[in-house]
TrEMBL record:
InterPro entries with a match to the protein in the record: SPP1-like_terminase (IPR052404), Terminase_Gp1_N_sf (IPR038713), Terminase_ssu (IPR005335)
Entry keyword Transmembrane: no
Region span, Disordered: 136-165
Acidic residues bias (residue ranges): 155-165
Glycoprotein listed as a keyword: no
Ranges of compositional bias, category Polar residues: 143-152
Keywords of this entry: Viral genome packaging, Viral release from host cell
A biological process term (GO) from this entry: chromosome organization
Protein known as: Terminase small subunit
Pfam families membership: Terminase_2
Length: 165
């Protein structure tokens, strides 16, 4: 169900102010009944839903998303942003990020793209090779254990072929 123009105006005003009575008045409802009309409008599902949707949109714009954060780190890394510092004389000066700050920005970016780093790729290959080697050794040990049965008799042991070692 669509909102009437008055309901839409009420909802938009309510999103701005959070005051149902003032929103009802600005939307064109009678001043004498504004308090009651505002309260009733807030209970109507279609108006309530519209207000919740608008508030969610506003809230999502306040929070930086991953793309925005990465863009900021990239601008720092490239020296495209500056910061205001105060000199010993008390003067305010704009300065580019120093090398340490740029490196930190680069590290933050690389944390999000670890597979693009040659060092990380090499470390990953080494770990995969070590894991494959350990798995191979485990299988060989398991095969040896299964093929050779040891029997212990009176503190002496003999193989399943009857020979003492």
């Amino acid at each position: 169900m669509k909102l009437t123009p008055k309901q839409l105006k009420f909802a938009d005003e309510y999103v701005k102010t959070g005051n149902a009575t003032q929103s009802a008045i600005k939307a064109g409802y009678a001043k004498k009944a504004a308090y009651q009309t505002g309260a009733e409008n807030l209970k109507k599902p279609q108006i309530k839903s519209y207000i919740e949707k608008k508030l969610a949109e506003i809230e999502s714009h306040k929070i930086a998303d991953a793309k925005e954060v990465l863009q900021f780190f990239t601008r720092v890394l490239r020296g495209e942003v500056s910061e205001t510092v105060i000199t010993p004389d008390g003067d305010k000066v704009e300065k580019e990020p120093d090398v340490k700050t740029r490196m930190n920005a680069g590290k933050e970016i690389m944390k999000r793209y670890p597979n693009d780093s040659p060092i990380v790729k090499a470390q990953l290959r080494r770990l995969e090779a070590e894991a494959a080697l350990k798995e191979h050794e485990r299988k060989q040990l398991e095969e040896q254990t299964n093929s050779r049965t040891t029997i212990v008799i009176n503190d002496e042991w003999e193989d399943d072929d009857g020979k003492n070692d």
